[in-house]
Amino acid sequence: MTKAGIPPVTFKRIATAMGFSPMAKANLAEVHRIAKRCEAQMYVFHIGEWNDRCETTYTGFLSELGIPNSDVVLVCKQGDPKEELRSLCQENSIDLLALGALVRENMFKVFTVSIARDVCRKAKVSLLLLTHSRLEGMPCERIVVNGLDHPKTLDTIRTSLWLGSKLGSKELFVVDELSEKSLIKPDDDKSQLNSTRKRKQIEREQHSRIEGLLQNCQVPVNLEIKEQHVFGKRGYTIAHYAKAKRADLLVVNSPDTKLRFLDRIFKHDLEYILADLPSDVLIVHTTKDTSYA
Amino acid sequence: MHKPSSGFKGFKENWQADLKAGFVVSLVALPISIALALASGAPAIAGLMAAVVGGVVVAHLGGSYVTITGAGNGLAVVTLAAITTLGNGDMLAGYYMALGAIVVSGVLLFLLGSVRLGVLADLFPTSAVQGMLAAIGIIILAKQSHVMIGILDPESTAPIPLLLEFVNSVEALFGADAGTWKTAGIGLFSLLLLSVFPKIRAQWVHSVPAPLWVVIISVAVQMIGTRLTGASFFPEKYLVNIPADWMSAWRMPDFSGITKGPFWGAAVSLTFIASIESLLSIKGMDRLDPYKRRSNVNKDLRALGIATALSGLVGGLSVVTVIARSSVNVSNGAKTRSANFFHGILILVFVLFFRTLLTQIPLPALAAILVFTGYKLLNPSQFSRIARIGLEQLFLFFFTLFATLVYGLIMGIVLGMLATFVVQVFITGSGLDMLRYFYRPNTLLYEEDEQKFILNINYFANFLNYPRLKSKLDSVPTSATLIADFSNTQFVDHTVMEHLSGYIELFEQKGGSLELVGLEAFALSSSHPLGVQSRSNRTKPGIQRARGTSQAHQLSAKQEKLSEFAVLNRLKYTAWPPSKWDQLVEQFNYFKYRRIDYTTNLLRDLEQNFYALEVSSHSGEFIMKDSQHLACIIMEPQIANLPVFVLDRERIFSRLAQYAGVKDVEIGNPSFDAKFKIKGPKPGAIRAFFTRECVDFLLEHPDFHMESNGKSILIFHKERVASVAEFKLMVSFAREWAQRMAIQSATAEEK
User: Fold this and answer.
1) Do A187 and B655 touch (CB under 8 A)?
2) Are residues B352 and B475 both part of a single domain?
3) Which residues are CB-contacts of A169 (< 8 A; sequence separation ≥ 6)?
4) Which of A103, A187, A267 is facing B624, going by the closest CB pair?
């Protein structure tokens, strides 16, 4: 793969779902800001009946936020929220669906996350879950992106680099989650030494792998790239790391398997992140086949 | 200190020292092994065989260094129960069936070690384990107190009725014959000797351990008495019985019950208690090892399993690691595992060549040793210590103790765990969360810098999820610096705090350090540094109250170290400064979007006008609440022309919208400009402020961030709470920086 091999994943059409939750206005502002930065067309989807009250609130929001009506394409549809959102994304060939996660009540969070789950397994769209939308806007300074040894990772890192350059980010942590199973379990002083040696060796190998990945990407000048190898449970570890490092955005691969009900009880990978959103989360939908080619 | 070599080389180097230690230990082990065999309801030889097989096998295959193996206290209780239930009243048949169970339990122990379940012993709450051990003490004491005063078969079998029956036994004594009186006399004398022994001043007395004195004196009484009277001084039934044909009397263990429940119940209980007793002893001995070697517990478990199975085959009891004999081993200069080997071999020599001498030991003397052991296990002086840690711990201790006495060992510890869980749910008021996060990971470990690790703990840490925390702690080299950050944790229980204090010791021994940070708010509501640390609803008013008054509060370990540091460095320390300090912090842009919850750990330097403190703040509310804890320094330099600026390397400040558009100020030093970004409204004033002294100094210490608001400067290092070492670093940075600024302002005035 050469440097010019595949173009980075870019977001040309960004959509958001409009509910009339307390955070609706802040979400609208946030998504508009992102769309502007990415030079993308913004869509607003509304599932349900569009009555006069909706109309007045909506136009009120737009004028208060200073968003010209021409910037936004509003699409309304009636039906099941999950189904319709998915079909709307498909019809309008949306690249990125931004959902304002939660607030106020746990129920709402559950709802957003369940849409997220549904969309990410069925629709061919990247997903952005916003947790910290604010009217005045928070700069996205620090991005944490996963650096797993996986075919999708390259696209994910490319996307995060591209988005980072658009949003003016300053720091990017490539977090490489490694399985603790590959380490020797230390029992005494000697095995501890061996374990440390093994850990260092794995870290060196992974470092050169990530180095190779980054060589295939266009790294923006102003973005400082850091690498962190963390041993622990996949999915959980990166979420905890993003929280500990106070990241503004966490970028992860889309899941390989369909998330079923059992996965929510025996959590793994993405489910850990969805259960405890540490920051804004971007789930990158790649064009890559999920099967290891 | 030169560590003893391993293998044959170590044996060649240290065999004299190990032989001496092994000899002393074998003298102690001899009476104790016989006594424990009798307490188990097994023939005397069974206890000795456990010591012989244990010594020989574990010394070769084990993973610990100075431990001694043999028959154990806790096991005596389980074995007695196994023999009684399996034999249905027939003690001899029961004994052979119990041997079968012992062989099976050996196999189970080996399997436990093979699948690395050495961590299991850490899963039990500390207070419950202490309660169970105390109950074992009572069970031993209840039975043996009768034997000690010459009543060989009391009517009751359960521990509590046995204790009550003791009064009857004493009454019966008054009407008894001279034979019984003699035996009661030697038993009571032995007990008296054991209890006053530590208080005897004469040095020569202590050259022989107390249990051996008991045996020497009682055997002397028996032999002299026999010589004088012509007949056996103590009646035959009160003497240890090792038949001359003990070797040829060997029989295969009875495995006939292997298909039935009681057999497996016995095998599982034996395995369970053997592993707990061994693992606790191994851990205890690691702290006593003069060479600070770390034992491989899983390897030791495997060795103990093999030894137990072999011991069962030759008619011996389960082999466990025993702490009392091991500590005798260490204090007599043992260096390697060969001491355990010598102890086993020497016991075999005693049995083979001094059998007749052993049969002269009167049972009441041995029972006295057991009564004393039982009392030491109960250890009433620990009650007040546990009560200081927390009344709920005392409750759990007694709850487990009585549950064990009434329902047996396994049921006792299970009930103890349940009670601990219920109490913790009650304390935290969030049982649902505890169940929800029970199987979910909650720890993050990463290497922040070379040899510096950060361990971040979420949600809660208690005995249920301690194994996960332990595996993270174990994977950090003990020579490294480890900071365990609890600022996102809601609840830490006594078991975890106790284990952590063990790890702190371990890291210090190996030249590393483990520091617990983020526990300040906990310290206020907890009664003891090792007690339950809960960020419950009570904490917040606790902080407000603490901040309102100037009286002394309960301090966390970190706070105590900080106050010590303050005294030594001409600083003034306040653990909970009043709320006016919040306002001082609030005026900086960094906190513009954050609400200050409280400040803590204030260190004031009154000469140079700077303050070091930790600030807890949050942004967002309710479930979006995002708490942050930050250690920082605030300086109020007495200079007229302090410009407004922000300086940082990791670009933390530029996230503040106010500075988003402002261009960087270039100082003129290329390496400085490449490394740092300075922003501010008046470039001229900033350039004048950053003189050569300041620039050089900052190049040497590039990890700090600064914000000046024209009156004072906010400086911090990492965006998290700091360890004591990091506090020291910040203070020394501030001192130096204050000096540079003083020079700067002096030169400015000259101009």
Assistant:
1) no
2) no
3) A140, A141, A142, A143, A163, A223, A248, A249
4) A103
Whole-angstrom distance, CA of residue A3 vs CA of residue A235: 29
Closest partner residue to B445 among A103, A231, A267, by Cβ? A231
In A, minimum Cα distance to B440 occurs at A267
Q: Which two tokens stand for residue A190?
A: 């000697």
Chain B hits for A132, CB-CB cut-off 8 Å, are 620, 624, 626
- Burial readout B83-96 (b: 16 or more C-beta within 10 A, e: otherwise): bbbbbeeeeeebbb
Chain centre to alpha carbon of residue B749: 60
Domain identity same for B305 and B376: yes
φ, ψ of residue B76 to 5 degrees: the values are -60, -45
CA distance A235 to chain B (A): 10
Structure tokens, B37: 């065999």
Total residue count of chain A as it appears in this document:
293
Q: How far is B420 from chain A (nearest CA, A)?
A: 25
Categorize the per-residue pLDDT at B52 as very low, low, confident or very high, splitting at 50, 70 and 90.
Answer: very high
Same domain assignment for residues B446 and B327: no
Whole-angstrom Cα distance, residue A285 to residue A287? 7
pLDDT tens for each residue of chain A, 293 residues long = 334 445 556 788 888 887 766 677 777 888 888 888 888 888 888 877 777 877 788 788 888 877 787 778 888 778 777 777 778 887 887 888 887 765 434 445 556 666 777 776 666 778 888 876 666 666 677 888 888 887 778 888 888 888 888 887 778 888 888 888 777 777 777 788 888 888 888 888 888 888 888 887 777 777 778 888 888 888 888 888 888 888 888 888 877 665 555 555 555 677 777 777 777 888 887 755 443 33
Listed residue (B14, B78, B83, B77) closest to B43, CA to CA: B83
Task: Give how far A151 is from chain B: nearest CA, Å.
Answer: 25
Identity of the residue in A106, A132, A186 whose CB atom sits nearest the CB atom of B474 = A186
Residues 6+ apart with CB under 8 A from A220: A161, A164, A165
Sign of CA dihedral B586, B592, B594, B595: positive
pLDDT at site B108: 92
Residue among A187, A189, A246 whose CB faces B299 most closely: A187
Residue B207: inside a domain, yes or no? yes
How far apart (Å, rounded) are the C-alpha atoms in residues B675 and B692?
Answer: 15
In the predicted structure, residue B309 carries a pLDDT above the cut 90? yes
Whether B613 is covered by a domain: the verdict is yes
* Distance to chain A for B187, nearest Cα, Å: 44
Residue B730: what residue type?
A: M
How big is the CA angle at B359 (ends B358 and B365), to the nearest 5 degrees? 80
Interface contacts (A, B; CB < 8 Å)? 97
Domain residue limits at B499: 436-517
Q: What is the DSSP string of B21-54?
A: HHHHHHHHHHHHHHHHHHHTTS-HHHHHHHHHHH
Residues B472 and B588 both lie in one domain: no
What SS3 state is found at B273?
A: helix
Asked if residue B412 belongs to a domain, the reply is no
Please give the Cα distance from B124 to A17 (Å, whole number): 50
Confidence of residue B302 (pLDDT cuts 50, 70, 90): very high
Domain count, chain B: 3
Q: How many CA atoms lie within 13 A of B343 on its CB side?
A: 37
Q: Are A180 and B471 in contact (CB under 8 A)?
A: yes
Domains and CATH numbers, chain A: 13-130 (3.40.50.620), 142-269 (3.40.50.620)
Question: How far apart are the C-alpha atoms of B632 and B643, rounded to whole Å?
Answer: 20
Residue B417 lies in a domain: no
Pairing mode of beta strands A13-17, A96-100? parallel
